[in-house]
Amino acid sequence: MKDAAFYFPDGGTSELWGAAVTACGVTRAAPGAPYPPNPGQHPGDHLFWLPRGGRILDCYQLLYIAAGRGTFASAAMGAVEIGRGSAFLVFPEVWHRYAPDAETGWTEYFLELRGPAMDRLRAAGVLRPQSAVFVPGVEPELVEAFETLRRLAGEQGMGVREQMATLGMHLLARIVFARAPGEPSAEERAVRAAQSRMLERLGEGFEMTELAREFGIGYDRFRRCFKALTGLAPKQYYRQLQMRSAETLLLHSRRTLAEIAEELGFNSAFHLSAAFKEHAGMAPLRWRERGGEGRPLVTGP
Hints:
Layout: E1 4-7, H1 13-17, E2 20-29, E3 60-68, E4 70-74, E5 78-82, E6 87-90, E7 96-100, E8 106-114, H2 116-123, E9 133-134, H3 140-153, H4 160-176, H5 186-200, H6 208-214, H7 219-230, H8 234-252, H9 257-263, H10 269-280, H11 284-289
Antiparallel strand pairs: 1-2, 2-8, 3-6, 3-8, 4-5, 4-7, 6-9
């Protein structure tokens, strides 16, 4: 996963669909590093400089912390500690600031929303600056949705911005109305964390035994728990994530098979083609030509 930030006008989408995603991206802030780590990726009016900086925007921004921890502060609710699996919403015309903890850094996914639908939710009291922090938990589905949004942001074509608008509102609803589940077991926490880690590092490649060790569980036990919760062994789950991403890139981009293979961590276009043919029953370029027709029913993630 590479850091990325996309900014663009809504092009009228907010009027037609009620909302528009006008920015999105992902940032990995390393422990002890200056924040923001890549200021050149953002417009000048979106930057603030620590330790005393802050800002006021003319839009809504939703941030989800997939790893690490830090602090969020606003004029409406003061300073709040933000942990992994937490999210917070920035409101128009409300001063705010946020930053990762120097010891841990963090991985943040963000999206920027504008439009009358957002204003209606605020007017109805569904969205309130005084209650801008949410704890949806470590949810691989949220990371996957943010990653899909990020990939769509780099594409062109009819309906792409509309897809982003509906996906952005879907993410907002998922986070704002998330219910706090019962206390999960240590094994379930490890599996959910592993699912998120797979999504965060999709394409980088890693050994599942090392992943289990990272969460303090022997691999055999980790594998049993993972399969019990997801229906798939860890390696199968990871391959399904790769295939889902390949489907998205084949349908919504003009990247070559070699470029897609490199992004998803395959040794070559040949290896990706063989894996995709096993997954979909046809070669990836043939699948692209048919517009995804005959898409297999994907089990698992």
